[in-house]
Amino acid sequence: MVNKILFWSGFGLAVRFWQLGIEMRPFLAQPWVYPIYASLGAGLGYYIQGVEDGQMRYLRETRDRLLEKRRRRAERGVEGVGNQGSAFQKEQEGLFASPKA
């Protein structure tokens, strides 16, 4: 987590340097602005880390649900586990049809 915050802090500083370079202004004319840009970058990094953690938690929960569902289906001994298509698809031919058994 700290590495993302540090990276985005550096990114905020790089944006400030890039801005001053485009404007062709001296880098140290207003040194008090650099901590502002660094803190804005750190805030963005913290937010992105939270979003990533939320997405990973959602993916973990979804994976666990699917694995539990598969385990219960295997315990019941249900044949044909997997996506075999509908009855209509089983009778069709072509790219999206189910393979003939």
Task: Provide a short characterization of the protein structure.
By secondary structure, the chain is mainly alpha-helical.
Task: List the keywords.
mainly alpha, 3 helices
What can you tell me about this protein's structure?
It is a single chain. With 101 residues, the protein is an all-alpha fold. It is 70% helix and 0% strand. It has one domain. It is elongated, with a radius of gyration of 27 Å. 6% of the residues are buried. Helix 1 crosses helix 2. It contains three helices and no strands.
Helix content, binned percent: over 70%
**Which stretches of 5+ consecutive residues score pLDDT under 50?**
none
Instruction: Characterize the main sheet.
Output: none
**Total DSSP E strands:** 0
Distance between the termini: 51 Å
Q: Structural class of the secondary elements?
A: mainly alpha
How many distinct domains?
1
Helix and strand element order: HHH
The outline comes out as: elongated
Calculate the mean pLDDT score and round it: 83
The Cα radius of gyration reads 27 Å
Fraction of residues in β-strands:
under 5%
Number of helices: 3
Topology:
Elements: H1 2-23, H2 33-76, H3 87-91
Helix pairs in contact: 1-2
